[in-house]
Write a structure and sequence with these properties.
283 residues, alpha/beta, nine-stranded mixed beta sheet, two-stranded antiparallel sheet, globular
């Protein structure tokens, strides 16, 4: 039986448990052959640290892609995360064209809590929206969805009808399936909702709403979701794995938040994730 192969394009923060330091071990544990393209190398992630180092690897990305093309490599899927510039968005778009036929999962990492991340502009958001149009699956949070649609950000007080309509507008941009994360209807539960524009189906899964913020949980969710989709487990099961695994990672870190404020103990939760995978495969 052939092993599924997935490329992942995002930065490498050497300390902080996010981006490639999450994606590679997590999707490898799921049984995938993971091929990373680092967009930049940072000494730490930028959330809460000062004086971090940064090296842009934009010049290397086309060379890596060209070498892979010459070697005749093929990929079952690609998953993208934080991209540091508009030019890198263009490089990812070119990657999609160079390796057609693969599942394309884009997490438009650029905003949260109603604001763009530092260094990002409305022009960047517009270019990221164009990249999402070329994806099969996009995974924005509510803030990113608002910027992509050029609509006001609504933090609370929305209902299922609003989320469903939001998902429809997102898929109208060009992608087949949109997944919105961080959805909270009743205050007690948080999760993700997806819409497949081809079949007209909605999918959702919720777990406990733990009122705490950790860096890297979005990367964990997207990596688990992309991994499960690459394994052809379907959107409903992929949501269940991604939501439940992310929540379990947070739970395992809550009692040690003082020492692990920079990220969650996702490594300790990998056995739990593998149990979720086995359950899905047996059903």
């Amino acid at each position: 039986m052939n092993q599924y192969r997935i490329a992942t394009i995002q930065d490498l923060s050497c300390f902080g448990k996010c981006s490639l330091t999450v994606a590679v071990p997590l999707m490898s544990a799921m049984g995938l052959e993971v091929c990373p393209i680092p967009t930049a190398i940072l000494s730490t992630h930028t959330g809460g640290f000062t004086g971090w180092t940064f090296r842009d690897l934009s010049e290397d990305i086309p060379k890596i892609v060209e070498h892979w093309k010459k070697e005749g490599l093929t990929f079952d899927a690609v998953s993208t995360g934080y991209l540091g510039s508009i030019s890198q968005i263009g490089m990812v778009s070119d990657f999609f064209d160079t390796f057609p036929g693969m599942l394309r999962v884009v997490d438009p990492v650029m905003a949260d809590h109603g604001k763009l991340y530092t260094g990002f502009t409305l022009e960047y958001a517009a270019e990221m929206t164009k990249l999402c149009a070329k994806a099969d699956v996009i995974v924005p949070n509510l803030t990113e969805a608002a910027f992509m649609l050029n609509e006001p950000y609504i933090a609370t007080g929305y209902d299922e009808e609003y989320i469903h309509a939001l998902l429809q507008r997102l898929t109208a941009l060009g992608c087949r399936t949109a997944v919105v994360t961080g959805v909270i209807y009743d205050g007690a539960h948080q999760g993700a909702v997806a819409y497949d524009s081809k079949t007209g189906e909605y999918f959702e899964h919720f777990n406990e709403n733990i009122d705490v913020t950790f860096h890297g949980t979005g990367d964990i969710f997207t990596s688990a979701l992309a991994g499960a989709l690459t394994l052809e487990l379907g959107m409903q099961r992929a949501l269940e794995i991604a939501v439940d695994y992310t929540v379990d990672c947070i739970r395992r870190t809550m009692d040690d938040k003082k020492n692990h404020w920079y990220g969650v103990k996702f490594e300790e939760s990998i056995p739990f994730m593998l149990k979720l995978l086995d359950k899905c495969k047996c059903e």
